[in-house]
Amino acid sequence: MNSFATHSILNPQRLIQLYQFHPKLKNIWYLVAATSFSVCNEPQEIPKLYHYAMSLSDDHAKKYRVTLAHKTMELVNNPDHDLKARLINEIYSNPSTPQLKLTQKFRDALLTSGPLAGLPRAINGLSSLKEYTPTVLLPKTPQIDPWEAAMGREEPCPATMREQIHSMQDRTKIIQRGLNHWNSLYNKVSTRVVNNMNSSYPDLWYYALVHVYGPLLSFVDVLNAQEKSLIVIASLVPQDVNPQLRGHLKGALNIGCDFETIEATRRLSILVSQWCGITWRDGIVQLTKKKK
């Protein structure tokens, strides 16, 4: 079932450690960890986080967190791929609304990391997740014929597209939404950051706005703006890109994340990165809490 690396970083104790890492992350710890693993090129760990989070989605299950961590590892590490697929489909034959939303959030978080950390890693992360997703929770996607689409005889992105863009007006609205998000994020330094990018290469700013901030980072139908901002932080921490990380740590504050949540996200991503063997040249930038 799993075509990725066979070595394992997560175990029951580490799953529990991530779950209990910080109370501010109780509803997003698994997305922060999954994004960090994807960016660190360890996509085989994502299904373990997914199934552990799924098993804990019922508040009453949390008292069994230790048992569920062991059961998660047994399920995901089952060497019989066909049996594993059957068990997953049996366990989630009638998934709850929280489990549906959790699945959607996993996909959205991994997609969000794509332009920030590299599309190949996002593809691998999403592919690994798909292999362990119950059939009933897989997206209902039609077959696409790229040759027919190239001839204009069918839509290149039919019902699977997150937002249908039917006209230039729709496209303009999405770009405007991206600009609004950009300004909210960067606030006082927005103009300076834009012109730094534009002076480096105009296509850089154009790409960031039209293809990243517009359709993706400002899309908040699955993850809200604050959750998305934390996912961006988790995407940047493993990469040793302090200038960008500094901007997004401050940006998270600007769009309503509190200091403790931002710092907990940063530290959880550091922990996962260290488990993956990531090192940093000059440390990892962090926010300084302002004195009252």
UniProtKB/TrEMBL annotation:
Which InterPro entries does the UniProt entry name for this protein? AhpD-like, CMD-like, PTS1_Protein
Carboxymuconolactone decarboxylase-like domain spans which residues?
208-276
Q: Name one GO molecular function term.
A: peroxiredoxin activity
What's the protein called, per UniProt? Carboxymuconolactone decarboxylase-like domain-containing protein
Q: Gene Ontology cellular component?
A: peroxisome
Mind telling me which SUPFAM superfamilies this protein's record contains?
A: AhpD-like (SSF69118)
